[in-house]
Specification:
It is a single chain. This protein is α+β, with helices and mostly antiparallel strands and 294 residues long. The protein folds into 2 domains: 153 residues, no CATH class; 95 residues. The protein is 59% helix and 12% strand. The chain is built from 10 helices and 8 strands. It has a 4-stranded antiparallel beta sheet with strand order 4-5-1-6, with helices on both faces. The chain has a two-stranded antiparallel sheet with strand order 2-3. A two-stranded antiparallel ribbon has the order 7-8. α3 runs antiparallel to α4. The longest helix has 40 residues.
């Protein structure tokens, strides 16, 4: 018996792909069993009640920069994609080209540069740690320079949304149960993604409206290029990525696009009339769809 795929999954498969950005780093920590035993014994506590973990790269700027940049990569990934399953994210088709371009020209080169800076200085850093960590220092805790280089990796993998033939020769009642489970999962995935998209659009509209607000002759938050361009990019994406054909979402998208028009952040900053027009337009959208501005 063939288990038909729901339309939602067909729409998702044609509207985007799955991506997995693997960012591996070296934590540079090591549990010291001997010192742990000494500490728990000194405090008369169970041997499993505490762990003494040595930071092998304590206050090493090059290592801290890599870990910080890993968070930048995660934030970048969340901006472009939506939850799918764990580390696998859903990327709308409209964003693929720019997503890969930013990865290849910005994030991968920057990550590799930071890694090379650490690896190049690694032997000197280890020598310095012998003084910093005192009796906690053990040369054997430190992997070789080559091994450290291999522990830092940034890769991107793209995966099509699963669309393989789904045929199972089973009893009819079990087939019906499997089909319902399959449809429920597909429906949940698409609803979660579209909920995130809708929240993202609403948030952008709120941010633009707030940035154009005037109080006592003084504007409140600054109009940032990233906010205006972010909203424009999202409206372009949603023009071809409304997989549930949500009429409300499409109306909000069109109206936000119309209100912004060709204005840039500089245009908005430089003209009180433009700020007022955009503020009123965004407020109208929020009011029309019952969104409360916090």
């Amino acid at each position: 018996m063939e288990l038909q795929k729901p339309d939602y999954l067909l729409s998702l498969a044609s509207a985007g792909i799955l991506v997995n950005v693997e960012c591996s780093t070296w934590g540079a920590t090591k549990k010291d069993n001997k010192v742990t035993e000494e500490v728990t014994s000194a405090y008369k506590s169970d041997k499993d009640s505490a762990d003494v973990v040595v930071n092998l790269m304590a206050n090493v700027k090059e290592h801290k920069e890599i870990l910080k940049y890993r968070n930048d990569i995660r934030n970048w990934l969340r901006r472009w994609t939506y939850d799918w399953a764990g580390s696998i994210r859903y990327l709308p088709m409209m964003r693929i080209e720019k997503f890969k371009d930013e990865f290849n020209t910005v994030y991968k080169p920057s990550f590799d540069r930071l890694t090379n800076e650490l690896v190049d200085k690694y032997e000197d850093i280890v020598a310095q740690m012998a003084f910093k960590n005192g009796d906690l220092f053990k040369q054997g805790d430190y992997p070789s320079k080559g091994e450290v280089a291999r522990r830092f990796k940034l890769e991107i993998r793209t995966i099509p949304v699963p669309m393989n033939d789904f045929r199972v020769q089973v009893a009819e009642d079990i087939a019906d149960e499997l089909k319902k489970h399959y449809e429920d999962n597909a429906n949940e995935m698409v609803q979660n993604i579209m909920r995130d998209v809708s929240e993202e659009l609403t948030t952008y509209i709120k941010r633009v409206a707030a940035s154009c607000t005037v109080e006592d002759g003084k504007r409140k938050p600054k109009v940032f290029d990233s906010t205006i361009e972010g909203l424009k990019e999202l409206t372009r994406t949603l023009a071809k990525f409304n997989v549930t054909n949500d009429a409300v979402l499409e109306t909000m998208r069109k109206e936000a696009e119309q209100v912004l028009g060709d204005y840039t952040a500089k245009d908005i900053r430089d003209s009180e009339a433009v700020r007022s027009s955009i503020k009123n337009g965004m407020d109208d959208i929020l009011s029309k769809f019952g969104v409360t501005v916090a």
